[in-house]
Amino acid sequence: MRIIIYTRNDCVQCHATKRAIESRGFTYELINLDLTPEAADELRALGFRQLPVVVTEQESWSGFRPDMINRLRNLATA
Fold this sequence. Notes:
Elements: E1 4-7, H1 12-23, E2 29-32, H2 38-45, E3 53-55, E4 60-62, H3 66-77
Parallel strand pairs: 1-2
Antiparallel strand pairs: 1-3, 3-4
């Protein structure tokens, strides 16, 4: 399963999300908006206003969402 996390350097919720996803054994692609500012425009166009933004093939969300992170295991086996 492909997981993309949009983040910034000093984002507490971003760090918590990365740690939670790693602790469940998932790998992810990281897009840092401090290094790729044009990606912020894309996220805003999709309606996101908060970081981190997590994108999978099946769904996406923003903010630190342990409930959604826990659902990744179910999505991976679907």
